[in-house]
């Protein structure tokens, strides 16, 4: 029964979203006298959240005479419910949009009460009366308020709208040209919903959930205030209830981590993080370093928050190169349209997934163990992946950056070979190419394992790919670098040998080398794939020696989400770093 309800809810939400994006839902007629409460937010301003339980000023009586009596008919916390309705009424300059008032009454008015709108001294006021009604609102016949067009935000909460946006993003074809505009139409409905409700329909971690969903859907910079408003709601919710014993510690962590995984700017989230730190201290949370990172501003788009992205990406269906649309991708890339300065060195992540690695590198200025002399702040960054949903997430994050990183990061949805072929026309040099945790190929001689994995001939990293990388390096008089990392030991051995065969020079790990991989496995659990591989090839070459690094090659705040997951679960990662040196 629970499964049936969940399925029906999904169908209902998705069909509603589809009907909206195909313009089935009516919009208000601009010629009407009625004033939509959302219209005042068309300039994109940030909503001021004033859901203050202690706010009992004289202004409360302007549209409502008996405050205490009306509080009896509103859901808890009734002062905040009152404040939301009062804010909606105060923002209606001429007359009320009935659809807006009905939308508020559906979740703010108790079942055995009804909201009544009436005239008093030429002012439209409201009061609660006992007894239910179908719509939850009764309108005095003398009031000139007319029905505006019913829109999606009247029917669904902000969280539900975020779920719709994500469903559209992940359940449509990879190359739907109108997809992003459909997603943004739903995001605009959510902005109207927040302005109407002042966030009062988002309780607990729901504001963070909505923010994360919109980020995953790839919402771009046109909806920056949507994210800022959701952070404001989350901040208010932590102030309101975060210190209560009924508000679990995991919900506080849930809120800050999902906002961080959405790459909310630190200046927008610092108050949220400070309040969360206070809540965690009061709850005697044991990880003191975690709390300190919230206080000192180092908490953000790295570490534990990236586990939410890994969970999302790991559930996505693998896209193979011969899937519909991808094998036909032959469009030429106009680099001037993608980057502000195409003379900058380019860092490339092939199979970039959620893009956390290059998004992190674009925000740092450090070097990789001083082995590669790269000034990260002076580079452009390109991510390449076959999954449009993952690409859209990365481009959405980059589009919302307001600082010097803007115009330096771009994600492309295309096969790796096609991208590298286009890279020949890039003005600058390709200083670093990475392959982080590619989907492994199937062990052909095995009847076990994941049958959804690509066959060996469809593995992303082919001999042709290394030929293309070699050709790029041959035209560059500077040193260029290649690195890979993977969870699969057999894949690591294959990639290492391909690198050496293509003329790359391995960079030795020194005292950070993996001397004996079995010793590492003894400290962890031996992966099933390794056991099966060694059963098939008991004398196979192992991923050990001075070319395999035991520690991360990238700065710790620039790790791919999969590497973060491996470190959190104490799983082995196989890493190698190479260079081409042209003379």
Please summarize what this structure is.
The chain has helices spanning 2-21, 67-71, 78-90, 98-108, 152-155, 158-170, 179-197, 206-216, 224-241, 249-261, 266-282, 288-296, 306-314, 335-338, 356-361, 388-399, 416-422, 463-474, 489-501, 517-523, 528-536, 561-568; strands at residues 113-120, 123-130, 137-139, 346-350, 380-385, 409-413, 430-436, 480-486, 505-506, 513-514, 545-549, 574-580.
Keywords:
583 residues, alpha/beta, 3-stranded mixed beta sheet, elongated
What does this entry look like structurally?
This protein is α/β, with parallel strands linked by helices and about 575 residues long. Helix content is about 40%, strand content about 10%. It contains 22 helices and twelve strands. Strands 6-5-4-7-8-12-9 form a seven-stranded mixed beta sheet. The protein has a three-stranded mixed beta sheet with strand order 2-1-3. Strand 4 (about 345-350), helix 15 (about 355-360) and strand 5 form a beta-alpha-beta unit. Helix 1 (about 1-20) crosses helix 6 (about 160-170), helix 6 (about 160-170) packs antiparallel against helix 7 and helix 8 (about 205-215) packs parallel to helix 10. It starts with a helix and ends with a strand.
Give the arrangement of secondary structure elements.
Blueprint: H1 2-21, H2 67-71, H3 78-90, H4 98-108, E1 113-120, E2 123-130, E3 137-139, H5 152-155, H6 158-170, H7 179-197, H8 206-216, H9 224-241, H10 249-261, H11 266-282, H12 288-296, H13 306-314, H14 335-338, E4 346-350, H15 356-361, E5 380-385, H16 388-399, E6 409-413, H17 416-422, E7 430-436, H18 463-474, E8 480-486, H19 489-501, E9 505-506, E10 513-514, H20 517-523, H21 528-536, E11 545-549, H22 561-568, E12 574-580
Parallel strand pairs: 1-3, 4-5, 4-7, 5-6, 7-8
Antiparallel strand pairs: 1-2, 8-12, 9-12, 10-11
Helix pairs in contact: 1-6, 3-4, 6-7, 6-8, 7-9, 8-9, 8-10, 9-11, 10-11, 10-13, 11-12, 13-22, 17-18
């Amino acid at each position: 029964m629970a499964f049936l309800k969940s399925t029906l809810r999904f169908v209902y939400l998705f069909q509603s979203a589809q009907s909206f994006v195909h313009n089935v839902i009516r919009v208000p007629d601009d010629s009407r006298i009625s004033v939509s409460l959302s219209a005042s937010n068309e300039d994109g301003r940030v909503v001021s959240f004033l859901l203050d339980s202690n706010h009992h000023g004289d202004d409360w009586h302007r549209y409502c005479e008996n405050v205490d009596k009306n509080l009896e008919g509103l859901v808890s916390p009734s002062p905040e419910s009152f404040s939301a309705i009062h804010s909606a009424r105060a923002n209606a300059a001429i007359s009320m949009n009935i659809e807006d008032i009905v939308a508020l009454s559906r979740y703010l008015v108790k079942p055995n009460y009804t909201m009544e709108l009436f005239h008093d001294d030429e002012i439209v006021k409201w009061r609660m009366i006992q007894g239910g009604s179908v719509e939850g609102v009764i309108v005095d016949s003398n009031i000139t308020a007319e029905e505006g067009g019913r829109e999606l935000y009247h029917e669904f909460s902000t969280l539900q709208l975020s779920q719709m946006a994500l469903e559209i993003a992940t359940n449509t074809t990879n190359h739907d040209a109108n997809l992003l505009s459909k997603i943004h139409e739903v995001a605009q409905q959510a902005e109207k919903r927040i302005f109407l409700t002042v966030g009062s329909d988002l309780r607990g971690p729901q504001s963070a959930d909505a923010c994360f969903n919109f980020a995953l859907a790839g919402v771009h910079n046109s909806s920056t205030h949507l994210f800022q408003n959701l952070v404001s709601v989350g901040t208010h919710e932590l102030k309101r209830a975060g210190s209560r014993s009924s508000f679990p510690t995991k919900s506080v962590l849930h809120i800050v981590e999902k906002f961080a995984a959405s790459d909310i700017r630190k200046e927008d989230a610092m108050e949220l993080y400070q309040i969360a730190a206070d809540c965690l201290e009061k709850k005697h949370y044991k990880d003191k370093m975690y709390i300190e990172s919230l206080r000192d501003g180092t908490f953000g788009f790295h570490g534990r928050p990236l586990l939410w992205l890994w969970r999302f990406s790991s559930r996505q269906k693998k896209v193979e190169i011969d899937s519909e649309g991808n094998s036909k991708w032959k469009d030429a890339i106009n680099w001037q349209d993608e980057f502000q300065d195409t003379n900058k060195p380019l860092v490339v992540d092939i199979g970039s997934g959620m893009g956390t690695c290059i998004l992190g590198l674009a925000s740092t200025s450090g070097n990789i163990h001083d082995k590669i002399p790269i000034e990260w702040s002076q580079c452009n960054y390109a991510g390449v992946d076959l999954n449009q949903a993952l690409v859209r997430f990365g481009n959405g994050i980059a589009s919302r950056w307001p600082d010097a990183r803007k115009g330096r990061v771009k994600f492309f949805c295309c096969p790796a070979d096609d991208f590298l072929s286009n890279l020949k026309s890039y003005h600058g040099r390709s200083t670093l190419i990475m392959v982080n945790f590619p989907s492994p190929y199937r062990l052909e001689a095995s009847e076990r394992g994941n049958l959804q994995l690509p066959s060996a001939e469809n593995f992303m990293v082919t001999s042709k790919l290394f030929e293309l990388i070699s050709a790029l390096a041959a035209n560059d008089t500077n040193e260029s670098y290649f690195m890979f990392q993977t969870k699969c030991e057999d894949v690591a051995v294959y990639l290492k040998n391909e690198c050496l065969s293509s003329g790359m020079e391995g960079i030795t790990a020194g005292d950070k080398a993996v001397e004996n991989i079995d010793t590492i496995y003894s400290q962890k659990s031996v992966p099933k794939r390794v056991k099966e591989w060694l059963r098939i090839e008991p004398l196979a070459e192992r991923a050990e020696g001075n070319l395999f690094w035991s520690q991360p090659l990238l700065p710790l705040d620039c790790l791919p989400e999969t590497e973060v997951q491996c470190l959190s679960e104490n799983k082995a990662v196989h890493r190698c770093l190479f260079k081409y040196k042209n003379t």
